[in-house]
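Supplementary Methods, section 5.1.

A reviewer requested that the exact input to the structure prediction be made available. We therefore reproduce it here, unchanged from the version used in the analyses.
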Amino acid sequence: QVQLVESGGGLVQAGGSLRLSCAASGHTFSNHVMGWFRQAPGKEREIVAAILWSGGRQYYAGSMKGRFTISRDNAKNTVYLQMNSLKPEDTAVYYCAADKVPLRAVIPTQPGEYDYWGQGTQVTVSS
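The structure derived from this sequence is encoded token-by-token as follows.
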């Protein structure tokens, strides 16, 4: 059974930093795209960042560029999201996701293109 378990969320002041982790089990995702999405109350789930299976290419949503960094450790089956310069508008539940199609050359950016999801971790940024 595939499980993605996020950790590292919490309450932080604006301008602060958090590092999210997502540990996968039940399947080795070293050949799969993994990503982070977020969903704020009343809003649709949106992509934050995603990383190719090799780690050599990343995608960032516009407002996250320069502030967030996605990385992965395939030996640990884990993906990370380093979030710096956090803003109140970053407040949301953050979800880890994995694509079941191996060795993609293009990073998918829509939630429907991902097959496995974690339960989410709350990130709250106070002003």
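The mean pLDDT is 95. These observations are discussed further in the main text.
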